[in-house]
Design goal:
Layout: E1 16-20, E2 23-26, E3 31-34, H1 37-40, H2 49-59, H3 72-84, E4 89-93, H4 96-113, E5 121-125, H5 134-140, H6 143-146, E6 156-159, H7 164-170, E7 175-180, E8 183-184, E9 190-191, H8 194-207, E10 210-214, E11 238-241, E12 252-256, H9 277-290, H10 293-316, E13 321-327, E14 330-335, H11 339-348, E15 351-352, E16 354-356, E17 360-363, H12 371-390
Amino acid sequence: MITAVLPTYNRAPMAFVKGEGSWLTAEDGSRYLDLGAGIAVNALGHANPALVAALTEQAGQLWHVSNLYRIPQQEKLAQMLVDKTFADTVFFTNSGTEACELAIKMARKYHYDNDMADRVEIIAFEGAFHGRSTGAIAAAGSEKMVKGFGPLMPGFKQLKWGDHDAIRAAISTRTCAVIIEPVQGEGGIRVVPDQCLKGLRDLCDETGTLLIFDEVQCGVGRTGKLFAHEWAGVYPDIMMVAKGIGGGFPLGAVLATENAASGMVAGTHGSTYGGNPLGCAVGAKVMEIVADDAFLDAVSRKAAQFRQGLEGLVASHPTVFEAVRGQGLILGLKCKAATTDVVKAAYAEHLLTVPAADNVLRLLPALNIPDADITEALARLDRTALRIEAA
């Protein structure tokens, strides 16, 4: 008999009733150290006082009016993002999946409006994850996501990750855009090297192809820059953002240059909830905190501390862990043991992690995780490895 909640997740056998910082309290009162942060969503930890205050203040005034009217909170957050990024304009969504759908539409509409209606094909990469809508799964193309859901939206081509020659060969007069995550999250915490992003930017400029960065998981301070592509010194035409931008409140966005967004005029796209006063009030507070240079410097320092400890764990437990991946606080432990076993062993140590492809354990703590909690996390990961070794 089917459950009241559609059973599309294999959920862990625990439920949480309260959160504070990097800690969650379960129904039985036990406390767990959270290295998942709601899959990179709770960028400032659980129940962050500044975010609670921003949400509470806005909730007492106005929740929702729809995009039939001006929304000052939306305009404020859009201007903050424009001021801090490559973008000239922003459209707000409720999720990364919705951001992907708009990115696809925006790229195709740009070429249509420039008398290149045949340029509809979008190049994506093996291991990518762009969401679970029909458009997003068609972009990623993995059998796990698309099997049984056909016919898929046409116009996508998937290439092997890191095959530069294949990218150049694949771009044709039908190519509309290239979509890529600067750091693959679901795909196993794989970082695209700076020189590769630079080469991709040059190739797109050379061929008139739009470049879309998916920074839903790796953006909003997670790498120690406000957005991961900044390390390479190159910028996209369109960028998808979500997860951390709302600090736990459902919020996403598409950022774009004026040129790339030129086809998106009144009536071409919309959202009932997107950019509502509640979400944008919280998002503005997140940006106020995360976009600060001192905060980003602290992320890089914490990341170095965490990574050094993880390298030590790999050396101490070579039959459990193989290597450390990632950048900033989007980190992964490539495992020799089955990742599912490591995740379950970590539960026994009251530690929450997130599995990813390629047998990788994702570590996505709050960006403001205290140093003491990093030390505690490393100790619990060490005990987790000992459990695996003893099994």
